[in-house]
Design brief:
Mean pLDDT: 82
Shape: globular
Strand content: 25-35%
Structural class: alpha/beta
Radius of gyration: 15 Å
Low-confidence stretches: 186-192
Number of domains: 1
CATH topology: Spore Coat Polysaccharide Biosynthesis Protein SpsA, Chain A
Helix content: 25-40%
């Protein structure tokens, strides 16, 4: 039912946590495939992904979401960044959204793994922005019907591709779910 697309670059150390968070959903049949869209990693990213049973494809920076979505065979896509993990129980909310016949996309709220006031403030600001503008600023934890995705912006950087995709969806087509995607410690300081 869901193809998970993970854009990577030298993410061998952070991929296992992401894969573990998808394990139960894969056993239950909700996640049908995981596609690692890699932009030429020099580490063991491809081996880690292959050992986990993921499909590894190669794509240039700024082309990874597009390449991953084109390679996907399931009717729904879930974009995740390496090092992110889906919060336990996310499966029920994803199933309910899919079964509800929604024609837009759904974003899982952001939760940071790091402790302290700074990460909590970032989470709060992200939640306020998502509720106020009905638009996530990140593709991390975005659940979208494949048919809705004509083509993400093919850009020169991953950030431009991601913002092009979010802009193309529009603010009224993304709803915020209660379950969270947890950004790991390696991502707290910024983008992977």
């Amino acid at each position: 039912m869901i193809s998970v697309v993970i854009p990577t670059c030298n993410a061998a150390a952070t991929l296992p946590a992401t894969f573990r968070s998808l394990f139960e959903a894969a056993i239950e049949g909700l996640v049908g495939e995981v596609i690692v869209s890699d932009c030429g990693s020099a580490d063991a990213t491809a081996k880690v992904a292959d050992d986990a049973g993921a499909t590894v494809i190669q794509a240039g920076p700024g082309q990874q979401l597009l390449a991953g979505s084109k390679a996907a065979r399931k009717p729904w896509l879930l974009f995740l960044k390496p090092g992110s993990a889906m919060e336990p129980g996310w499966e029920e909310e994803a199933r309910a959204f899919i079964a509800g016949g929604e024609h837009g996309a759904a974003a899982f709220r952001l939760r940071l793994a790091a402790k302290g006031l700074g990460p909590r403030l970032r989470e709060t600001l992200a939640a306020i922005g998502a509720r106020t503008f009905r638009l996530s600023t990140s593709c991390d934890g975005l659940l979208i019907p494949a048919k809705l995705l004509d083509a993400p912006c093919a850009a020169s950087t991953p950030q431009a591709e991601e913002s092009g995709l979010m802009r193309g969806l529009g603010r009224n087509r993304v709803c915020l779910l209660k379950a969270a995607v947890i950004a790991g410690p390696a991502r707290v300081g910024g983008r992977p």
